[in-house]
Amino acid sequence: MGTRLPSVRELQQRYQVSPLTVQHVVRDLAAKGLVTVRPGSGTFVAAAPPRGPRPADLAWQHAALGGRTPQDMTRHLALLEAPHPDTIRMSGGYLDDSLIPEKALVASMTRAMRRTGVWGRAPVEGTAAARQWFARQSGGFDPAEVLITSGGQIALSIAIRALTRPGDAIVLETPTYPGYTAIARGHGLDIHPVPTDRDGLRTDLLEDVLRARVARLVVVQPLYANPTGGVLAPDRRRELLDLARRHGVFVLEDDYARDLSIGGAQPPTLASQDQHGHVVYVRSITKPVAPAVRLAALAARGPALARLRAAKTLEDFYVSGPLQEAAVDFLSSPAWQRHRRTVSRELGLRRDGLLAALRSRLPGVEVAHVPAGGMHLWARLPEGYDDADVAARALAAGVMVSAGSTWFTAEPEGAYLRLTYGETPVAQLVEGARRLASVL
Ligand SMILES: Cc1ncc(COP(=O)(O)O)c(C=O)c1O
Fold this sequence. Notes:
Arc Repressor Mutant, subunit A; Aspartate Aminotransferase, domain 1; 42% helix; binds pyridoxal-5'-phosphate; transferase; PyrdxlP-dep_Trfase_small; aminotransferase; DNA-binding transcription factor activity
């Protein structure tokens, strides 16, 4: 302890490595608390950190925490797990590293970090430039109606909790993203599932639910829904907004996949068709830009906006200024348009590659709807298979897929797998299909 380390030059000569390598190692040891760097004096072996005895019995925590475990949260968290490096990943929700526009992001971040005032406190609602960008994208909101958040998940959580009270009814699509189910359960909401098909939410069935119950909020994914890839049809959009107006409910539009289009015309946002402030809009850029760029917008009008703003400050005061600046710099540059084209092309190749592999190796697995965007295929297993069992056996065989039952908010209407193509290059998807076939 306290011993001085040899100089960088000495270490470099002794171990025949570059000065950069020595600096990396020293930085690493310092981060681990093993050495202390004293500018001008050198690097010294650090004192052992004081560490009290670790308590052996943590059982008291069960009594303190009480009985209710948010079990949906654990299933939801499983989506963020990193599998073994040899496992092929066909479950998840972010693009892989090969699709990160690293050079352009580094350039944007470098410019952002040098801007005057960027290291100070950012506005609670988000920077003016970020709010303007998301407002334009939403097609229905003014910048003053937009709040910037650290990613889509927290925006959804703020919206669902701020617009409902524990015990209220909430309408969720079935199947749908389990993130909503976890938030709703955690907030003590009564979930009313309404089925979807390739044309999105079955508004004919929503009418009955709204007539029979007092719901405050309907959560929808009108574009390339996760997991089915469905797109809400024009007549159903009109019907949904009409129902929202007649029954006085909010509609939470999770526009999570607008920048993950593979081809074809995209319908406008639901928000752009809303006249009376029913639509609350969420748009995240984490998926299309990079997993490290945790940035999203939450937009609403009237008293709902005031509630959301108040709720947001309970969770998080403001999003880091350099991140907002860098994101807007990137999103306003030609690099973003180029990147969108690359993502679109690559998603198309991956979707088609996986579909072809499934058709040749797993003819009994049915993909009824080929999505025009998003990252997933919703695949029905042949009769007699159990999705959770197949997913577990697939993982043991080296391919990670998602069991479809997690996506249903009501009883599953069959055994499905959600097969993610967005996170894996084609060659690996083909190998993944082969491994899945060996299990089936
Ligand atoms: C439909 C949907 N909405 C929202 C999210 C949240 O994503 P993020 O917090 O990265 O924006 C996800 C993530 O998988 C998703 O699938």
